[in-house]
Amino acid sequence: MTVIDMNHFTVLSNNLEKSKAFYINILGLKEGYRPPFAFPGAWLYVGDRAILHIMAGRSMPINAAGVIDHMAFTASNLQAMVDTLKQYNIDYELQRLKGLEIWQLFCHDPDGAKVELDFPAHESEPKQ
């Protein structure tokens, strides 16, 4: 057996609607089918793939297990993303990755999960 692809990330949320609003309104994911689990949540899609699962209705762990630092998405239209983040008063950091010259934008979801958005090198520096 070998790993052939990334399937999805799961994030925990204190406020499902707030989390959904971030990932749908800010990042442009779409809510889609989710099996009828006994706990609240959402599956968010890019195309026909559910790439992000949100779990709610549980207490946030005091000492979270694991060492995942952030999740990263490939994105496009850097200027539109910067404008949207400003509109929603979401802090972000933007840098050009040396060597590859891609743009890396970092922000946090409503529950503090770190999100990286990678934009193509050919995109112009956004007007801040």
Description:
Keywords: Dioxygenase, Lyase, Oxidoreductase. GO terms for molecular function: dioxygenase activity; lyase activity. It holds the Pfam family Glyoxalase. By secondary structure, the protein is an alpha/beta fold. Helices cover 16% and strands 31% of the residues. The chain has one domain (9-57, 69-119): Roll (2,3-Dihydroxybiphenyl 1,2-Dioxygenase, domain 1), CATH 3.10.180.10. The protein has helices spanning 16-26, 78-87; strands at 9-12, 30-32, 41-46, 49-55, 71-74, 93-96, 103-108, 114-119. The strands form two sheets. Strands 1-4-3-2 form a four-stranded mixed beta sheet, with helices on one face. The protein has a four-stranded mixed beta sheet with strand order 5-8-7-6, with no helix packed on it. The N and C termini lie far apart (47 Å). The model has no long low-confidence stretch (mean pLDDT 91).
Task: Walk me through the topology.
Elements lengths: L8 E4 L3 H11 L3 E3 L8 E6 L2 E7 L15 E4 L3 H10 L5 E4 L6 E6 L5 E6 L9
Parallel strand pairs: 1-4, 5-8
Antiparallel strand pairs: 2-3, 3-4, 6-7, 7-8
Summary, kept brief:
With 128 residues, this protein is α/β, with parallel strands linked by helices. It is 16% helix and 31% strand.
- The fold-level CATH name is 2,3-Dihydroxybiphenyl 1,2-Dioxygenase, domain 1
Largest beta-sheet details: 4 strands, mixed
Q: Please state the structural category.
A: alpha/beta
Strand content: 25-35%
Distance between the amino and carboxyl termini: 47 Å
The CATH class label is Alpha Beta
Read across the widest sheet, the strand sequence of neighbours is: 1-4-3-2
User: In DSSP terms, counting alpha (H) and pi (I) runs of 4 or more, how many helices?
Assistant: 2
Helix content: 10-25%
CATH architecture: Roll
Low-confidence stretches: none
Mean pLDDT: 91
Radius of gyration: 16 Å
Shape: globular
What's the domain count?
A: 1
Q: How do the helices and strands follow one another from N- to C-terminus?
A: EHEEEEHEEE
